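SAMPLE LOG
Freezer: B-3
Tube label: C17
Construct: single chain, 309 aa
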Amino acid sequence: MRFYCLKLCAFVLMIFGACYAQESIQNYDIPPKQLFLAKHYGVSHSEVYSTDIFPKIQKHFKIATIPPDRFTLRLKSVDVKLIFARYGYDLSFEDIFVEFEFVSDMRESAPLEFLEKMYIQYYGDNIEIKQIQLRPLHDLPKHYTPDDYDFNTSALKKNSGTFVMKYHTSSANKQATFLYQIHASLKVVKSTQNISINENLTLQNTKIALIDFEKNRGDLMTPDDVGNSGAKSYIRADLVITKDKIKPRIIVKKGDKIVVSSRQEGVLMEAVLIAKQNAIQNEIINAQNPISGKIIRVKITNEGKGEIL
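STRUCTURE (predicted):
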């Protein structure tokens, strides 16, 4: 009987010890033998914490802060490894650098839609927007109503910048500044060969190309301008053509014959004159009667046509 009691007590102690050990294991943060750091992470706030990288670990500590004027922060992976090591975690990594990217939590849908509308109005079908990154420079309330926006339209020539949103809450009128960056492609006109001054831009010396929208390129020539424009200055081959490089197409050249008309007492009169200078549409030039030699002022209305003034 005594032997049976001792055996029962030992069994109870063993069960109690196992339960205590199990509870201790559950409450004690045992660092994983190996955590693997990828080369890119998205976060929806400025501060980057350990649990943004590894949501299931127990220790919550700060890694870095994304600067307020940027969307990304690039760190050496070995530096992140050292931070984790201070808290007892062993870390390996995919690449020598790790990038943390600010990703909107989509509470800014109204200002995002406004920004997209502005760029589409400016570029029309010549822009293909892939992604818009938007970041308020200060915390926004959970509930607000947008009222108006302050946006400099000259910024539309660039793919990044800032703008101000005026809004109100139930208790006050406020404003917030947003940092933005647009990832998009632009449909542009590129020269396929060297183009001389005054040479017309055609499908033979230009091509339509799709380029990344990365920086300020000035006012871009659009595909609609091809066939209606001439070179204002020399354009080298394989150049994205901007509007400061072009002018309205010359439709009459010096020495061309032009058919001109005039109406006298209800009768339409036509004659053939010789252009004394190059001309674009609606330009007034001198033209000469090839028989009499008389110089006449003519308004050019179309290719090879004009009206006597």
